Amino acid sequence: xxxxxxxPFLILFFLLVVSQSAFASRKTxxxxxxxxxxxxxxxxxxxxxNGTDVDNSTSAAITNPAKLGNNYVFGKLIVxxxxxxxxxxxxxxxxxxxxxxxxxxxxxxxxxxxxxxxxFNSTEHKGILNIMGADLMMEKTRDFTVVGGTGDxxxxxxxxxVTTEAAEGIKYFRLKMDIKLYECY
Length: 185
Ligand SMILES: *[C@@H]1O[C@H](CO)[C@@H](O)[C@H](O)[C@H]1NC(C)=O
Ligand SMILES: *[C@@H]1O[C@H](CO)[C@@H](O)[C@H](O)[C@H]1NC(C)=O
Ligand SMILES: *[C@@H]1O[C@H](CO)[C@@H](O)[C@H](O)[C@H]1NC(C)=O
Prior knowledge:
Layout: H1 2-24, E1 36-45, E2 59-61, E3 77-85, E4 96-104, E5 111-121, E6 126-136, E7 141-151, E8 157-168, E9 172-183
Antiparallel strand pairs: 1-3, 1-9, 2-3, 3-4, 4-5, 5-6, 6-7, 7-8, 8-9
The chain binds 2-acetamido-2-deoxy-beta-D-glucopyranose (NAG) (3 copies).
């Protein structure tokens, strides 16, 4: 009998606990208010097909395009070890390296998929940001996700908004990366 009397209290208690944890896990993130923001420039210098410009290259095609779709190099995969600078100048001292890959992944237009690490090893920052996302080149700006980090960027998460600022044939392109972190520890 006693336990029956207590049942409504138990239910009330249970509901309170559940609603508390539901509220606790809901965080509001203001896109306009990142905990850290960095604007950096990514420079990609692609080795030409005959490999004659090794000294002026930081990336290379690893696969040939598949014969699928006509002119959008579907399946071409590029691995890069690219300099990252604080301003638009390719020849400025790099503040980080971008190491990873992109491949072309659409049959009817130019789009690519990026996955890379931004590796910082300077007096200002030591650590890594891991970034990935769809490069929908028909859009002026694209959002990659910062999926994690180490070192100074321990457990970081956020958005890297990229814009193509310059392109010289297939040899060179520059991306402006506006990196906004919303989790900083
Ligand atoms: C190598 O290929 C590039 C185009 O990718 C061309 O401009 C250049 O003349 C070629 N060089 C030689 C030595 O064939
Ligand atoms: C390498 O290529 C880039 C892009 O085309 C160019 O701006 C730069 O001057 C070149 N550097 C050398 C040493 O040829
Ligand atoms: C970082 O820089 C230091 C000092 O220049 C160097 O000894 C170390 O090997 C570098 N680490 C990496 C991962 O590049």
